[in-house]
Amino acid sequence: RKTRMERDSLVQDFHFFLTRPTPDRPLLLLLEGQLQGGEGGMSLNWLPTSLPPNVSMVLIVRNADMETVPFLKSLPPDCFMEMSALLTYECTAIADQHLKDNKRTLSSEQREIFQAAIEKCSLPLYATLAAHIATSWRTDDVDLKLQSDVAGLIN
């Protein structure tokens, strides 16, 4: 019961803070992670189905499960953008641009490790995060490894 009351209080506070943004100080919420229902996730019923002025939200869900689908169906259809995997060469181009912007290049061995990882997960966010990690690699670094998914790169 106490947990339910704490959750309700947090939801109430969340909805209150959504009313605070102004044209001069808009709010962009980026919600990603364990937001889905089902095992390891949580219900999405605390999220508003419409946003006040000056508030935008990006909600990243990996899969639409039985708990997520009803919430998603309650939203207007123009709210969705499905992000699918890119072709490997497109992810490589994203990563190469990030490396170039940071004045970094990869050795041939590092490039092989990087390319193998991109082939396993060709999402734009993965390519960007992996490139960010690769900018910290030194030329003489060996035994480098990139996690196989976005969550692994973040954690």
How is this structure best described in words?
It is a single chain. By secondary structure, this protein is mostly helical. Helix content is 42%, strand content 8%. The chain is built from six helices and two strands; from the N terminus they run αββααααα. α3 runs parallel beside α5. The model has no long low-confidence stretch (mean pLDDT 82).
Task: Give me the secondary-structure topology.
Blueprint lengths: L1 H16 L9 E6 L22 E6 L7 H6 L14 H14 L6 H13 L3 H11 L15 H5 L1
Parallel strand pairs: 1-2
Helix pairs in contact: 3-5
CA radius of gyration: 20 Å
Q: Helix amount, in percent?
A: 40-55%
**End-to-end CA span:** 32 Å
Going across the major beta sheet, what is the strand order? 1-2
Q: What's the total count of β strands?
A: 2
The best one-word shape is: elongated
Mean pLDDT: 82
How many helices? 6
Q: Strand-residue fraction?
A: 5-15%
The stretches of 5 or more residues where confidence is low (pLDDT under 50) are: none
Question: Oligomerization state of this entry?
Answer: single chain
Largest sheet: 2 strands, parallel
Tell me the structural class: mainly alpha
N-to-C SSE string, H for helix and E for strand: HEEHHHHH
